[in-house]
């Protein structure tokens, strides 16, 4: 017995020794593997799709077909609901409501996928929801007449708004794009088919406002351009119908012109307030889209509203007050950005204020008050140009205000007629012409007096103001002299009238050359040779045909003296400068 126990112990000992040898062999193999850098080949990864790798990275072909397959199954469910409805298992309204909830379900699943960082599946579930909801909404309103146009608009807005809120919260940009495009493309056919232009214009405007908010909240920049195009189109269509009562027939007969006016004003307020909020509160720089759409909102909204008020005869002056309030506000905001490093916000607000101020003046005032108001704005702009704005913005605006005032007052017509009319009685002075001449003279004097701040790049507006001033003064002098010579006579003989013009032009060149010696009036020298040339042409083509020997003698003498004197005076100035 004892011998058998010893044999078992020896056997166990041999087993232990063999295990130890195997363990040492395994250790040596491991060390050899490390020393020789033996690498075990990893299993091949499934082939990935390189299409849109930045949007959906690492998506396999199998995954793509799987998600597309699921999309078709989802759509199959929608067709099953339709089959139950058509077989009268469900009433049409119950089928429509179940269909909307079915679309809502997959929108929620899309949000859940986005929460799980699966943007690819979220996009396809979002597309499924779009393909179910919007055709259903359109068909239930137009073909089945289950919902009224107002109910359809409410359903469309609530569903779209919920989708946009969820898209923003889960940062599902692709779902956001699908829903905005689907909503806009559904709203326009509904607008045309139902005739409820006002209702769906409001819907499109609200969608556009939502895209504007998300542009600044999420930096989603493309879709606002698309929504702006649709809202501009809807407002143009509204203006087209509302501005002509004869077009309000048939399906469009229920359009309220007053309500259309409110919508257009709201359209302006929505966009302008949006950009004000973005620049002032969010400290954003106005974008090209902001400039573009602000201009379109003003042109379509304000001038469309003006065309409507002309048709109905009410609300015209309310528009003027509205434009005036916004103009004042925009000028104040513009001055906030005068000293900013980037001037783009200043330019935006200054030019928007200019357009609004111009519109307000045009709407609110009669012709004479228009000229006075434009003159005040021109003077104020040039003073502000020299005190706070070192750029061309307000200087150009001052020039535009001034030029418009001169044009409305017929100053240019008066001045040119004083040089070409065959009788002095054909050009008549009026109090508003005198005011206009005083106005342009004051503006040019302000340019001269405040010229210490003038930079090279604002010389062009100043020179144009000088041209307007000289044209006006020439016409005024011809008027005064010709009427003084006429006394109680009905007319001044034409050859005498031509001589008066030649003398005034010749003397003016010498006077301008002399005044240009003053450092602040140096730009006057640029007018000397053009006026001399004009006078010479006039002598050859007008005076020779209409004058007498005596008037020609006097005219040629005066002109010859001017030709000799004016260049010499200019040369003295140049020599003194050298």
Give a written overview of the molecule:
- It is a single chain.
- The protein is mainly alpha-helical and 578 residues long.
- It is built from 20 helices and no strands.
- Helix 17 runs antiparallel to helix 18 and helix 19 packs antiparallel against helix 20.
- The chain is elongated.
- The N and C termini lie far apart (138 Å).
- About 3% of the residues have low confidence.
What is the secondary structure topology, with strand pairs?
Layout: H1 2-35, H2 61-86, H3 92-115, H4 119-142, H5 149-170, H6 173-194, H7 197-218, H8 223-242, H9 257-281, H10 288-312, H11 316-336, H12 344-364, H13 367-387, H14 393-408, H15 411-420, H16 431-449, H17 459-486, H18 494-515, H19 528-546, H20 549-577
Helix pairs in contact: 2-3, 2-4, 3-4, 3-5, 4-5, 4-6, 5-6, 5-7, 6-7, 6-8, 7-8, 7-9, 8-9, 8-10, 9-10, 11-12, 12-14, 13-14, 13-16, 14-17, 15-17, 16-17, 17-18, 18-19, 18-20, 19-20
Judging from the principal axes of the Cα atoms, what is the shape? elongated
Number of domains: 4
Note poorly predicted spans: 38-51, 453-458
Percent range for β-strand residues: under 5%
Could you say which structural class the secondary elements and strand pairing correspond to? mainly alpha
Quick tags:
578 residues; 4 domains; 0% strand; mainly alpha
Question: Can you summarize this structure?
Answer:
By secondary structure, the chain is mainly alpha-helical.
